[in-house]
Amino acid sequence: MRLYQEKQKFDSKWLKALLIIGFFVPMLFLMYGSYKQLIEGVPFGDNPASDLGLIITLVMMLILAVVIYFVFFRSQMIIEMDETKISVKFFPLIWTERTYKKEDIESFSVEKYNSLLRYGGWGLRYRSRKELAINTSGNEGILLVLRNGKKVMLGTKNTEQFAAALNKMLNN
Question: Percentage helix, strand, coil, to 5, in the chain?
Answer without folding.
Answer: 40, 35, 25
